[in-house]
Protein 1
Amino acid sequence: MSDVFHQALAQTLPMLEEIRDGIKPPPRASGKALRKLLKEVSSHGASAPQLVEGSADAESSAVWTWDALEQVIKGCEKCPHLVRSRTQVVFGVGNREADLMFVGEAPGADEDEQGEPFIGRAGQLLTKIIEAMEFSREDIFIANVLKCRPDMPEGESGNRKPRPAEMATCLPWLREQIKLVQPKAIVALGATAAEGLLGETRPMRELRGRWLAFGEVPVMVTYHPAYLLRNQAITEKRKVWEDMLLVLKKLNLPISAKQERYFTQPTK
Ligand code: URA
């Protein structure tokens, strides 16, 4: 089934149910885009939902429910090569009303196998960072720019970076997740996540430690935990931690004296 069809169903049915139940007024959405989607629905043999005609400007105001979005993302077939290689789509995990989101680049082998982002070695380090911030993983929403594991050439193990085209194809899903979560801040983990989310190609030293934005949402770019596994220098850990202190400040959360001192050189 085409993903346009999935999208049409997922976009229109929850909206119609809300109108039927009196939760929402009839949409300002009967324009070109909606008609095109409905045509797709009809051409796939499903009975097209009846739409309430109104003014036509709602192309960008599709309202997703979490269930519909999850169903559509998990069935996404936009990248046929990744559909062939993936075990499953890694949707994202955690608090769907979180104040804070962490965004990585793409699932690795462990995440592809288990269906949850950041559960391998880098993920375990991310969990420690989250706990040092006095959160638990369940307090945060964690997702990736690319929801499928990047495929590897036959016989090769390891990971490859997601391609810009793959990230651009997948970004609308992350955008919808961000719209639903409505976080007060996002942490983008690593240069690839920064590129996928923000289109930023500047080096990490120019990106981290300052606030950027995804639409209205403040974004802090910091080093990927996999980088910290490769480079164990306390100075690099401190940089990530300083970025997390800025995040705690942005969220108006208290910072203890002990937290302020993490990863500073011991004074002699
Ligand atoms: N690295 C990422 O960027 N995302 C994951 O989910 C795991 C490792």
Protein 2
Amino acid sequence: MKTEEEIRPPATLVIFGASGDLTRRLLAPAIAHLSRDGAISPEFAIVGIARTSYSDADFRERLDEGAREFTPRDQGRPGELPAVVRYVCGDFGDPALYASLRGVLEEIESKRGGQHNRIFYLATPPEADPEIVRFLGEQGLSRAENGWTRIVVEKPFGHDLDSARMLNESLRTVFEERQIYRIDHYLAKETVQNIFVLRFANGIFEPLWNQRYVDHVQIAVAETIGVGHRAGYYEEAGVLRDMFQNHLLQLLCLTAMEPPVKFEADAVRAEKVKVLQSIRPFPADAADDWAVRGQYGPGVVDGKPVPGYREEENVAPDSRTATYAAVKFVVDNWRWSGVPFYVRSGKRMAKRISEIAIEFKSVPHHYFRHESGELPPNVLRLRIQPEEAVSLKFEAKIPGTVADVESVYMDFPYSSLGAASRGGYERLLVDVTHGDQTLFIRGDEAEEAWRVLDPVLKAWEKESPPAFPNYAAGTLGPEAADRFLEKDGRRWRTLGK
Ligand code: BG6
């Protein structure tokens, strides 16, 4: 039997960048829910660190406000924050900050009976991370005498392959890999975790899950939101860094990976790394044959007129940043040889939908007539959001004397299993307290994902984009993306159908 300490380890969460949006919008509600549900120890403590000057009470109030504002309506009232919430004001580059932090930690821990479990959470821009990590090391805060120390690193994990390597090096000089938790919040989504279960807890899908039966795979994360107030970050990032290097490549890995030897962190992550290593490198001089980019212009989303990307606050009027990309990945291994993975994502698209569609090969000989003329292929869709569902499309006979067929759907809505699914941060925080790294990115995995995308990023930096903007807000992306698939004799699936 597990002890209370093993189930709900008492720990202190130290948030660097505590005055920022992420703390208010994601961490505060997650902590309040965990505390309401008794999923964290009553002795769990929070220490916020940032340059903004707050008192402990101001910081608690800010967290409370965040928890109230960002708790979805269907998830009840957020709970009380933990009893101990402290705030340390200072500059990340000032050694005195770390001395004050140590004092606060020791004070909290002595009241807790000397238990030293510490989580350092870097909710900071990646440029700030190496310095914070170095100071934590120099000040002896990376090793606990009586307990454990873990560090959580938010995305983006670097800016390209070189910077990700440097960030990994800086982390590894101070922490061991088993202490490092690189976040990708897509892995905490219930439906994303359900990919493992669908594939590896069912006997009927896996035999079909390969080049013999699958024609191609389409992965889409379409968003209706624009860049909002994040232009400072997004102008530098663009869609490949913001969505592909992490969320979309993770979805691809979970779809394409081999069954791991065990369902545990290193076994799962090793299989994902193998997928990334099998992705055929993009030729730097012909990136456009493999990837299409787009940027939204003004348009109408959800019935409301919205500005184009270049008109957004803090965006350069001649910005070359891509807000849409469609990329063809080829996974060169036994399972996937000849099965392209078409992956697209964009901001300000017509609908908010994230899904993976596995399109199976057609039957070898057609006897039946379909209303559309052509017998469509079977498609298994894993819907990640907004509705969470799994849906299988197949053909059925239309009742009557003729042998005409029509497409029908077998649907499993995730909501039929009860509880509304939550934001992923709760699950991730609990996993950190339990030392479970399965849903976090390993260092080599982050680097491999950058290695895959680097040639396209470099080519796009060097070569001028097509005439931007090239898709109107509220549409499905640039026309060039349609031609991109037509070249392969395929079409994008209608999103959500
Ligand atoms: C974030 C990106 O990681 O994911 C955002 O930085 C994006 O640009 C967001 O909007 C999408 O996440 P979700 O969970 O809303 O699909």
Protein 3
Amino acid sequence: MMRFGVEFVPEEPVEKIVNLASLADSLDFDNVWITDHYNNRSVYIVLSKIAEKTSQITLGPGVTNPYTVNPAETASTIATLDNISDGRAVLGIGPGDKTTLNSLGIEWDKPLTRTKEAIEVIERLLAGEEVQCEQMDKHDMKRAKLNFEFKGDIPIYIGAQGPNMLKMAGENGDGVLVNASHPKDFHFAIDRIEEGIEEANRSIEDVDITAYTSFSVAEETEKAKKAVLPPVAFIVASVNEKILERHGISFEKAEEIQKHLDGGDYGEAFASVTDDMVDAFALYGTPEECVRKIKELEDSGVTQLVSGSPIGPNKEEAIRMISEEIIPSF
Ligand code: F42
């Protein structure tokens, strides 16, 4: 069965996000994910407020990284979030956003290895072990151990796009958060995830394959589409050539958008987004159109749909529409 999640970016005021998360909680969404970038508001402060104001929804960072936060610190924080939310915490972790890390002077060395090892450290700490990691490449714990009571089995979701990361996520994750909106990308991703699942002798049911989409729903298609132009412009400017090729998008047009964004000319960048770009990198439309597109993702093997930014021209209305006009079809 398809699960439904919603993502918020804490560039918006905490109060606003908490109110929207509380609405999603009351409307039976399964998950709320908060993105993590140091230049936005603090992910865990937002999550702890959400924990107070919600009662059934699962909540977590989507995603933290092992560069700006030591994995022992992540284990402690997620266990604390689990304490205060009566067992509703999930951990989303990935290698981190390269551009953001660059601006902090952090080198993205061996991002896959560092993420994989961090997950091992976190899992062992959450199992109550004292962790020493002399054999690890990127971490060097001597005698790390958590010193309070917590429930150990917090699900770990791995943010992954690249072939190796997807495979690693299939081997190690309780879920995979794939930043994509189109079935073509999921055919590619799920093949890689399955390789990992096989290698680890696991089964596909063990892994919640999550479409972390750029989402927009409205009563009119055009209104929904207009709201996704900004995120799609940023996606087009940052994805690699192979992904553009997969969707038949011209590299030159993508470069043009990148130049406009780099020059701070956002109006021009958003106006240059073409229909094939929007169709490739966003899930948008009327509730009926969204249902049809989500069913295509479900057929390709997706098990959780996360409505990510913008969600719709009006976030609150969009959350109500998802609950009333989309979720009942699944
Ligand atoms: N990043 C953030 O900073 N904050 C967020 O809130 C956030 C949310 C989010 C949600 C979903 C999602 O899927 C990603 C999200 N991200 C977020 C981005 C995330 O942190 C990563 O930047 C993103 O997922 C990119 O990951 P990727 O899967 O493309 O992996 C990178 C590291 C990559 O290059 N992978 C390659 C691959 O094939 O998978 C190669 C990796 C590899 O094998 N590396 C080797 C190693 O050991 O690390 C080294 C290889 C060598 O040659 O040295």
